[in-house]
Amino acid sequence: MNVNHVVKRYNPDNIAKPVGNYSHVTKISRNAEWYVFSGQIGIDQNNHIPADFNQQVTNTMNNIVDILSSQNLTPDHVVKINIWSTEEIDWDHFYEVWNKVFDSTPPSMTIAYIQALGLPEIKIELDVWAAG
């Protein structure tokens, strides 16, 4: 795990514990550079979007790691992720992949179930904000 002096995460004792693997509070230090990424989807390196929901989840998380790397960032720099899903999320699979990427310092998270995304074959999209 990276030691990140720009992004700090907290779960205050005076509120309920998170119901999932995320942090209630994410604090960004002064003078940090902000990165806002377009929503990441489950497309693979061959421009194929699989029909399988869990494969889209895996591909999406791989794409997040790759786009962060393109900016010399790691998952530890992620501040917030908004999750948009057209299907019920298989949380066992999702957290298996999520925990491999974010380890013990997961970012803040919001989840919404929606009717559709930008293309009919897209089932999940993650909106990523980072600071470094």
Would you give an account of this structure?
There is one protein chain. By secondary structure, the chain is of the alpha+beta class. It has helices at residues 53-69, 91-102; strands spanning 7-10, 25-28, 34-36, 40-41, 78-85, 108-113, 124-131. It starts with 6 loop residues before the first strand and ends with a strand. Helix content is 22%, strand content 27%.
End-to-end CA span:
15 Å
Number of strands: 7
What Rg do the Cα atoms give?
A: 15 Å
The share of residues in extended strands comes to 25-35%
Shape: globular
Instruction: Name the poorly predicted regions.
Output: none
Task: Please work out how many helical segments DSSP would assign.
Answer: 2
Task: Identify the quaternary structure here.
Answer: single chain
Q: What letter string, H or E per element, gives the SSE order?
A: EEEEHEHEE
Please give the share of residues in helix: 10-25%
- Main sheet overview: 5 strands, mixed
User: Which class best fits the helix and strand makeup?
Assistant: alpha+beta
Mean pLDDT: 94
Summarize the structure.
With 132 residues, the protein is an alpha+beta fold. It has 2 helices and 7 strands. It is 22% helix and 27% strand.
Task: Give a topology summary.
Blueprint: E1 7-10, E2 25-28, E3 34-36, E4 40-41, H1 53-69, E5 78-85, H2 91-102, E6 108-113, E7 124-131
Parallel strand pairs: 5-6
Antiparallel strand pairs: 1-2, 3-7, 4-7, 5-7
Helix pairs in contact: 1-2
